[in-house]
Amino acid sequence: MSYDKNNIFAKILRKEIPCKKIFENEYVLSFYDIHAQKKIHALIIPKGEYIDLDDFNQKASDQEIVAISKAITEVSRILGVSADTGKGYRALTNLGEHGGQEVPHLHFHLFGGEKIGKMVE
Ligand code: AMP
């Protein structure tokens, strides 16, 4: 499968549609999920064109890979849910059909602000 340049997150990265930005650097953009499933629901995405985590780990540079991991912690601090600023959070990525991925651009969800509940249904 090749990367779909018309997916919604690609449009957000090109500023064709707006987002509620939380954090940005050279490699990463973070913004609020439009349909929050918990009190805090943020998304963290690479700026590069990667479909999912497998695609990312195969093609991304070491700097990009490090950046996305560090960005999750940075966003958790900004939102006051990191281990040192709050009560914790859950970060996850969905991949492919069985993983339930809807948007074909790698993204990590960050849930917090309340107990997140069961790991899987
Ligand atoms: P996933 O099922 O892991 O692919 O998650 C995709 C997520 O993107 C869902 O939680 C959607 O609510 C979210 N989403 C879709 N469109 C937008 C948008 N325009 N801005 C922010 N979040 C979005």
Describe, in plain words, how this protein is organized in 3D.
The chain is α+β, with helices and mostly antiparallel strands and 121 residues long. The chain has a single domain (8-112), classed as HIT family, subunit A, CATH 3.30.428.10. The protein is built from four helices and five strands. It has helices at 8-13, 53-59, 62-78, 96-99; strands spanning 21-24, 28-32, 40-46, 89-92, 108-112. It has a five-stranded antiparallel β-sheet with strand order 1-2-3-5-4, covered by helices on one side. It starts with 7 loop residues before the first helix and ends in a 9-residue tail after the last strand. The mean pLDDT is 97. Bound molecules: adenosine monophosphate. Adenosine monophosphate binds at residues 8, 19, 33-35, 43, 94, 100-103.
Per-chain topology:
Layout: H1 8-13, E1 21-24, E2 28-32, E3 40-46, H2 53-59, H3 62-78, E4 89-92, H4 96-99, E5 108-112
Antiparallel strand pairs: 1-2, 2-3, 3-5, 4-5
Bound molecules: adenosine monophosphate.
What tags apply to this protein structure?
globular; five-stranded antiparallel beta sheet; binds adenosine monophosphate; single chain; 121 residues; alpha+beta; HIT family, subunit A
Q: In a few lines, what is going on in this structure?
A:
By secondary structure, the protein is of the alpha+beta class.
For the biggest β-sheet, the strand order reads 1-2-3-5-4
What Rg do the Cα atoms give? 14 Å
- Give the count of helical stretches: 4
pLDDT under 50 segments (min length 5)? none
- Note the overall shape: globular
Tell me about the biggest sheet? 5 strands, antiparallel
Helix content: 25-40%
Whole-number mean pLDDT: 97
Assign the CATH superfamily. Answer: HIT-like
Q: Give the termini distance in whole angstroms.
A: 28 Å
Into how many domains do the coordinates divide? Answer: 1
Strand element count: 5
The sequence of SSEs as H and E is: HEEEHHEHE
